[in-house]
Amino acid sequence: MPSNRRMFMKLAGAATAVAATAWAATPSGAQTPSGAQTSGQFKAIKALAFDAYGTLFDVFSVTALCEQLFPGKGNQLAQIWRFKQLQYSLMRSLMGRHRDFWGLTEDGLVWASKNLQLDLTTDKKKQLMEAYLSLAAFPDVKPGLDALKKQGIKLAILSNGEPKMLEAAAKSAGIRDLLDEIISVEEVKIFKVSPRVYNLASERLKVTNPELGFVSANNWDAVGAASAGLRTFWIQRSSAEVPEELGFQVDTTVKAITELAPLLRG
Fold it and tell me: Quick one: three-class SS letters along the chain?
């Protein structure tokens, strides 16, 4: 849903930039310009960690159910819900008051409903929350992961999501068997863009930072990983999206996950 994503990025950009700046781990150094790859640049990469929400799973696939339950308000509800979910993760990390992502997702839904003056009954809330366990995967996800797996690349999810949420979504999307690990921020009790989150991936996948790539369709997330010292790949799903101004650049930008396997082959 490209129009939903563009609208959401306009809403979320400012809040994300503030938090990402606060968490920057080191001063900016020289970066390879995005898209300026050289042959064999990524051959050392043995593992890739993927963001989940917005990268593998389409968070706006809940829009149809939102519209069914609240006619005429579905798109607004989906947009505001996602914005508050992300905003609460950033705010709670800065506050030092952790609550898992399932709880934040519920809190965001409740706030969005109140903001739009919608009657969120217990049953409607249950339906919408359960929709997060079976979000649609983007069409490039399964073929892209499959191609990488055939090249011997270790694959993982590295996400803000709560473990049971991630397991359910991966199984629903038919990609669980392609993943070596599902890594949740619950191991460190702080959300992205904290460097502690990105450091989890190399530990769990047993690779060094130069051997690990991080993949996200959320530029702020990829920039956070770059700040933490990882090789980074931004899936720019919409040409309307522009990179964040946070002192770091991603290593490369692609349009789909299916472009990664040829890139890593060099």
Answer: CHHHHHHHHHHHHHHHHHHHHHHCCCCCCCCCCCCCCCCCCCCCCCEEEECCECCCECHHHHHHHHHHHCCCCHHHHHHHHHHHHHHHHHHHHHHCCCCCHHHHHHHHHHHHHHHCCCCCCHHHHHHHHHHCCCCCECCCHHHHHHHHHHCCCEEEEEECCCHHHHHHHHHHCCCHHHCCEEEEHHHCCCCCCCHHHHHHHHHHHCCCHHHEEEEECCHHHHHHHHHCCCEEEEECCCCCCCCCCCCCCCCEEECCHHHHHHHHHC
Please report the pLDDT score of residue 82 as a whole number. 97
Delimit the domains of the chain by residue range. 28-58+137-265
pLDDT digit string, tens, across residues 3-17: 555 554 455 554 544
**Assigned fold of 28-58+137-265:** Rossmann fold (3.40.50)
Which stretches of the chain drop beneath a pLDDT of 50?
8-9, 14, 16-36
Task: List, in order, residues 6 or more apart from 104 with CB less than 8 Å away.
Answer: 85, 88, 89, 92
Residues with active-site annotation: 51
pTM: 0.85
Q: Which amino acid is residue 82, in one-letter code?
A: R
Phi and psi at 146, nearest 5°, equal -60, -45
On the question of a cis peptide bond just before residue 185, with omega within 30 degrees of 0, the verdict is no
